[in-house]
């Protein structure tokens, strides 16, 4: 080793480099990598853990309970930090690595950064086949780590120690690029982790990363402004990119100045508060009657930071065929979709430039008035469904109403797959910006509790809201992935988990029956079990208590409110369970295209097929 080099193992060099990367949040320099979730096995415990143990003050390691949930917690953290700080998930080889693939898909679909590190087989192949190696007879270079390739933005396998010198900066640049943002994966061959190399000292110099803000093409802005000025009934769709660009205020000011109502995607919900003067509700299949009514008559739609997923567009039945789209997006791939007039650029910078170019132009006066009247009617519908009734079993909407009432402005609601996305997107009334996280880009069951843990960690320090994550999920999702309640107990992170027990997978049962198939294998009573008339009941409160959480089971909405107030004063995680209605839903008025059999022995299915054909006849295809 010379003064210009540092002799380290590859694992030691990897960890040292990670601890010397920084970012700025609210003007304060902070570590880019806030911590690492890790489960050690023979593929990483002897080398990577040796390196991590020595840097706990700079890069704390948190022991997870499941590799998938660790990475989901990292995703929740990245969402809470609005992609400005990153967590790492590290696992051994084999099943530990493949467990993370689902989480990688979740980050990929949602355009979120997380660094995934997994052990790998031996680069020298001398001990082959090693424990947990999945052999491909015709290609010895393939391991389970190759399964990450379709679900990450950056993939590499380190077989020589010097390769990290070029690989690591590329991985970070990818994760921080607004256009390419997504997960990065690096496989670490077991024997390569142990090898020493004389690394250039300059490689470990501190680096402060800044997220770029690409400016749009001037001609594209001019065309977009010309089209918008021609609009009689314009509308803005605000997506998740608005939040990640920190463009909420700019979009709100733009909309107010030019008289254009704003509706939100699921990922974009929370950019505006519920009662903001230009806010007209969530759009699409799990959206509001107000937003969908505005969409149906809109002639020019300014879509900002959204990939226009089918739940936003009603499978492209929500808009008039002649409606024209302007798509503002940092990612060219998303901006050019659906023949939109594409404006490729950062949301904040692009909207600022469009505002200047529009000058004093204002949409027709009645546009915002119509939006406000429609939204007022939507609020009346919410009030109606959230109000207490004499029903012995509360609905999701009523549970959400109580949670919303107790929530402090800086508390964040978290949900994902199952029945909760539709109900929370419709019913939750955001009090402060960026206090809503519904993972529906990948609709990943199991995201909720790990994400709550990640959000709880992210509430601390610069950029943190200081509130309490409030997780809402169903019994089916709880049974699928709940072990991070114990993780939060270990770390002392506070979150509130509300489990709505409706006896199985209720929302998919709803879709199944709506399309004509008799209830089958979704609600517990319709499954192949020993006693379908009286399915075994899980005491979720006692289960959570067994993991060290504070917990209560409640029967009524009044008891739920009392329990939530009690939970707000607890340290660590609190779990509250309540039986809920499997059949009561807030109505929606948007269509969704799903597969329905062309022929069936069920008359209800053939009728549903006719209805599905009618939906497809309304779709905007090739227009």
From TrEMBL:
Coiled coil: none annotated. GO terms for biological process: inositol catabolic process; isoleucine biosynthetic process; L-valine biosynthetic process. GO terms for molecular function: acetolactate synthase activity; flavin adenine dinucleotide binding; hydrolase activity, acting on acid carbon-carbon bonds, in ketonic substances; magnesium ion binding; thiamine pyrophosphate binding. It is an enzyme of class 3 (hydrolase). Keywords: Hydrolase, Plasmid, Thiamine pyrophosphate. InterPro entries: DHS-like_NAD/FAD-binding_dom, Myo_inos_IolD, THDP-binding, Thiamin_PyroP_enz_cen_dom, Thiamin_PyroP_enz_TPP-bd_dom, TPP_enz, TPP_enzyme_TPP-bd. Residues 421-578 form the Thiamine pyrophosphate enzyme TPP-binding domain. One of its GO terms (cellular component) is acetolactate synthase complex. It holds the Pfam family TPP_enzyme_M. Residues 221-353 form the Thiamine pyrophosphate enzyme central domain. Residues 36-132 form the Thiamine pyrophosphate enzyme N-terminal TPP-binding domain. SUPFAM superfamilies: DHS-like NAD/FAD-binding domain (SSF52467), Thiamin diphosphate-binding fold (THDP-binding) (SSF52518). Its EC number is 3.7.1.-. PANTHER family: 3D-(3,5_4)-TRIHYDROXYCYCLOHEXANE-1,2-DIONE HYDROLASE, THIAMINE PYROPHOSPHATE ENZYMES. Belongs to the TPP enzyme family. This is 3D-(3,5/4)-trihydroxycyclohexane-1,2-dione hydrolase IolD. It comes from Acidiphilium multivorum (strain DSM 11245 / JCM 8867 / NBRC 100883 / AIU 301). The lineage of its organism: Bacteria, Pseudomonadati, Pseudomonadota, Alphaproteobacteria, Acetobacterales. The gene is iolD.
């Amino acid at each position: 080793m010379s003064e210009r080099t540092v002799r380290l193992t590859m694992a030691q060099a990897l960890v040292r480099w990670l601890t010397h990367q920084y970012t700025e949040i609210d003007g304060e320099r902070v570590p880019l990598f806030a911590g690492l979730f890790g489960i050690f096995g023979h593929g990483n415990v002897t080398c990577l853990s040796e390196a991590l143990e020595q840097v706990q003050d700079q890069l704390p390691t948190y022991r997870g309970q499941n590799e998938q949930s660790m990475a989901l917690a990292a995703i929740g953290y990245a969402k809470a930090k609005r992609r400005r700080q990153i967590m790492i998930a590290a696992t051994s080889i084999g099943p530990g690595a493949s467990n993370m693939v689902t989480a990688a898909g979740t980050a990929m679909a949602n355009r979120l950064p997380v660094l995934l590190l997994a052990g790998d087989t031996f680069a020298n192949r001398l001990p082959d086949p090693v424990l947990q190696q999945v052999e491909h007879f015709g290609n010895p270079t393939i391991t389970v780590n190759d399964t990450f390739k379709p679900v990450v933005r950056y993939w590499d396998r380190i077989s020589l120690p010097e390769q990290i010198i070029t690989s690591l900066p590329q991985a970070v640049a990818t994760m921080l690029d607004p256009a390419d943002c997504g997960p990065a994966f690096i496989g670490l061959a077991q024997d390569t982790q142990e090898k020493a190399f004389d690394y250039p000292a300059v490689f470990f110099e501190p680096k402060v990363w800044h997220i770029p803000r690409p400016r749009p093409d001037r001609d594209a802005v001019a065309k977009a402004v010309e089209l918008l000025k021609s609009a009689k009934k314009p509308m803005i769709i605000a997506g998740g990119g608005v939040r990640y660009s920190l463009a909420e205020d700019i979009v709100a000011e733009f909309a107010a100045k030019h008289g254009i109502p704003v509706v939100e995607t699921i990922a974009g919900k929370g950019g505006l508060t519920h009662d903001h003067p230009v806010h007209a509700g969530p759009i699409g299949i799990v959206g509001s009657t107000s937003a969908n009514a505005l969409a149906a008559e809109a002639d020019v739609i300014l879509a900002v930071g959204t990939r226009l997923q089918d739940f936003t567009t009603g499978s492209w039945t929500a808009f008039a065929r002649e409606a024209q789209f302007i798509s503002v997006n940092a990612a060219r791939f998303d901006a050019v979709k659906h023949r939109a007039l594409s404006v490729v650029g950062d949301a904040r910078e692009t909207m600022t430039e469009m505002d200047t170019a529009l000058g004093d132009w204002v949409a027709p006066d009645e546009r915002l008035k119509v939006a406000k009247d429609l939204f007022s009617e939507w609020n009346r519908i919410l009030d109606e469904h959230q109000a207490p009734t004499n029903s012995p079993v509360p609905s999701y909407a009523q549970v959400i109403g109580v949670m919303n009432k107790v929530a402090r402005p800086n508390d964040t609601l978290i949900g994902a797959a199952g029945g909760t996305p539709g109900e929370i997107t419709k019913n939750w009334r955001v009090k402060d910006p960026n206090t809503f996280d519904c993972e529906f880009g990948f609709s990943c069951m199991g995201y909720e509790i790990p994400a709550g843990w990640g959000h709880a960690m992210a509430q601390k320090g610069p950029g943190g809201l200081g509130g309490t994550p409030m997780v809402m999920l169903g019994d089916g999702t709880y049974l699928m992935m709940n072990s991070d309640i114990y993780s939060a107990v270990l770390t002392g992170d506070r979150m509130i988990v509300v489990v709505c027990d409706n006896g199985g997978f209720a929302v998919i049962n709803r879709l199944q029956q709506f399309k004509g198939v008799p209830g089958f294998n979704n609600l517990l009573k319709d499954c192949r079990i020993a006693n379908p008339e009286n399915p075994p009941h899980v005491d979720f409160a006692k289960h959570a208590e067994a993991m060290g959480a504070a917990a209560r089971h409640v029967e009524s909405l009044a008891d739920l409110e009392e329990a939530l107030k009690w939970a707000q004063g607890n340290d660590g995680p609190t779990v509250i369970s309540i039986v809920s209605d499997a059949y009561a839903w807030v109505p929606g008025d948007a269509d969704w295209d799903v597969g329905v059999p062309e022929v069936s022995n069920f008359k209800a299915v053939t009728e549903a097929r006719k209805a599905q054909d009618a939906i497809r006849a309304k779709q905007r295809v090739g227009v």
